[in-house]
Amino acid sequence: MRTPAATVGVIGGGQLARMMHAASIGLGLRLRLLAEGPDVSAAQVVREVAVGDYTDPATVAGFAAGCDVITFDHEHVPTQILHDLEDAGIAVRPGPEALVHAQDKAVMRSRLGAMGVPCPANEVVADEAALVAFGQRNGWPMIAKTSRGGYDGKGVWKLDGPDDAGVPFAGLRPDAVVIAEEFIDFARELSVLVARRPGGQAVVYPVSETVQTDGICTATTTPAPGLRPDQVRDLQAMGLRIAKELDVVGILAVELMQAADGSVVVNELAMRPHNTGHWSIDGAVTSQFENHLRAVADLPLGSTALTAPVAVMVNVLGGTRADLLAGLDGVFAADRGIRVQLYGKDVVPGRKVGHVTAVGDDLEQTTERAWRAARQLMGDTDE
């Protein structure tokens, strides 16, 4: 008889691990954490915390020895370390063969292209001359990305012309290359989240519309307004196919750009709980965090159905209010239905320090409620 993994080791101590911890309690799973420091977001709430460098093979191996399965708060653990864990008989979910597609954008673009998944025109460019040549063929402006290490808008540049071609190569990591991509004049961004078990059982969440500001997700609306049923079906099928083809275990987030004509291309992949799925804590029968843990522990997956017709999540970014806890009084007094997640982080301007979720029947009213609560917590005095 199959025995589910009882002890889940999470590498990375950010807010994603913090919310995984909350989901683990009801499942009866033991969560252990390899954190970057003793006071990071998840380390404040997880009981068993090891502090160490996730890029050090000995540190990761020592941590993993006390776990049934390893999963992640981020995608930055070196691929070779994960191969070494698997060679030592430790379950890694998602495994390195899958995770490399989220770690390395060049690998991801090559694999998705071979699968026939729609992507922007792209090319790995060795130097400034090759980048300029790509721009001449595909038009300016164009996008340049580092293949490894970028997140929340870092490592991504919009280049207006040949004079900008040197920017992506300045300070390039030794293990990274530069990818040139055509600029997509998209109408909006969408996200598809899939949860998948080792044996292949998979579930898909409703498609979300996302709002990005300076490369950072600021809000999501679920389900994405204005999509036809056939479009939803096709996008969900794409997410399920990618998860199957790449053999993802856990959550896969497929970030998409949609043009005015309705066509889409894949922008990014992530293989862990994702900001665009935070709404699911309060807006879905089973949150992305619970389904991620169910998947990596090899438990049957839960329903992804909405609990209300509309769910709107807005990130709380560091603003003028330093004491977020004190701000809850006004938020909850104004709206007893609003839900808040605070991450235990010091307030720094522009930093993700929490999020709010509103669910309801009316799109406009639910959106207004979520934004009003977030602005209160950010200290927006105009509200």
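Above is the first protein from milestone M3; the second protein from the same milestone is given next.
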Amino acid sequence: MTESILIVDDERGQREILQTILEGEGYRVAAVPGGREALEQMETRGFDLILTDLKMQGMSGMELLEKTLADDPLQCVVMMTAHGTVDSAVEAMKKGAFDYLEKPLERDDLLLTLRRAFERVSLLKENRALHKQLEDAGGIPNLIGEHPKMKEVYRVVTKIAPTTSTVLIYGESGTGKELVARAIHDGSPRKNKPFFAINCAAIPETLMESELFGHEKGAFTGASSREIGIFEAADGGTVFLDEIGEMSVGMQAKLLRAIQSKEIRRVGGKVNVPVDVRIVSATNRELEGEIRKGNFREDLFYRLNVIRINLPPLRERGSDIATLADFFVRKYSAQAGTSVKGITKPALKLLMNYSWPGNVRQLESVIERGVLMAESDQIEPSDLPAEVTEGLSQAGWVPFELPPEGIQFEDLEKNLIIKAMERAEWIIAKAAPLLGMSYKTLQYRLDKFGIARGREE
């Protein structure tokens, strides 16, 4: 769908030039000479973005911004300003404008700013859709179950969502940490403000500061324009920092300062920018152990760990597997337009006996595949992937012939641990189920043998 823009400028020539440029780029554009006309237009049709001059006859751009955001706090507004009124444009950003452009406008700067703005618009639309889904479902989508450990999660989320406290979610990969973070946001007074999620393990250390706090033009090679970071973009809303244990110690110090001062400074910038964000973080590591190793700052840990939520792995709530599987069958059968209605008892038995190292995310993928592969209205064992159908032998007794000369048991144990870690790409939470161990037990054995990436320390 083509993005729509409303241009508001009392200079006719400026309006016509902008309209020509933006229509040439494929945008749907309307243009009006003042704030009152803009409000009338917005009453009859919606716009993805408002591009407004700051100084105008009658209603100013600042007044238009305030009235627009009062009606729709998620409306994206970009200000245009003359050089002498940049301070006012910065004030407009504090009140909710996405960005500002200095006149005379440079075509490339204009188009780049709009591209960034529409990326945010896309995220906000996704967030609105999720919020509606939550209201319709009356709970946390895809986070389903009646196990006592899950009921405790629901209880805590309901209790703490309306507060401003920071939250730390513990859970293995695939347990639904981001779903919980979104539910906290959508149950809070910030629900109409942005929600941004960032995976700390997926962003190189050299780019992390810019991603979170933004940067000024020329701050580093390739920084061709000013970029707003996630903290500024999420002002008034929530930032979800997934896999926080992967963040470097140096970056942890900068994050701690931002949380304490409620200010950020863009890379290459000289001015502190006030921000109001709620921090929800998540990890699959035991951060207390990382503190002892010097990998995580203790002061940051206590800032993040005000409220702790423990998400259980799927293998610890096996009674929920059938309920989850039924939910995913209905979901993907409807999406694919198939007649699949359920799962046969033999197939369900395989699902119940599998260890699920990938947790609910893996179960969802398995059921989606089963729905697509099923030849009847029921998922059969033959519709399931090999890792599930062979799961009983993998999780059960492995035949072993004891040699006449005996064995060095610790050497055998160490080699098995190394093989499991290699198969799990050195992620403890994934390797532990392969060995039938808990996370803490495997961590203890890794420390005991001094295993680090397959080498003894």
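Note on the second protein: Confidence is low (pLDDT under 50) at residues 133-139, 392-399.
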